[in-house]
Amino acid sequence: MTDRISKEHRSWNMSRIRGKDTKPELMLRSLLHRAGFRFRLHVPGLPGKPDIVLPKYRTVIFVHGCFWHRHEGCSNATMPKTRPQFWQEKFDRTVERDREKQSQLESAGWRVLTVWECELKTDPTKLAYRIKNQILRPHSSTHNANILEIF
Hints:
It is a single chain. The chain has a single domain, classed as 3-Layer(aba) Sandwich (Endonuclease, Chain A), CATH 3.40.960.10. Helix content is 48%, strand content 11%. It has 7 helices and 4 strands. Strand 2 and strand 3 form a beta hairpin. It is globular and about 50 Å long.
C-alpha cells in the first residue's frame, strides 16, 4: 500500500507533532494544579526530561502517547500498514529508551509515574485520584547529589 499524500505533505504533518505542551500534558497539568500540586516542567538535568517533576515528592510523571510509546492492549497503539519493519524498530527503540530512563530515575531515588493519553481521555477524574494517591504514598528515596543540585 502506498502513501496517499506526498512526501512533502507527510513531512509537514509529522513536523506538527509536538514533544512538549501536548493536549494530554496540558490536561494532566491542569488536573494536578487543581489538586494543589506544584511542579516543574521538562527538567533538563533529569534522565528523559520528564514532562512533570514534583521535587517535593521526589516524583516525576511522563505523559505518553499510546501510539508512539506502545501502550500495551490499547486500541490506539496500532501498527502502520506501510513499512512495518521500520515502524517496529522505531517503536522498540522508544520503548527501550523509556525503560532505560525510568530505571535511571528510580536508581536516583525518584518515583516514576506514567500517564497514558487514553487514560486522560477516558476518565480524568479517576486518573487524578489515582495519581494523587500515588504521589502522596510514602516513598523511600536515596538521594543522588548530582540530581538534587538542579533544585
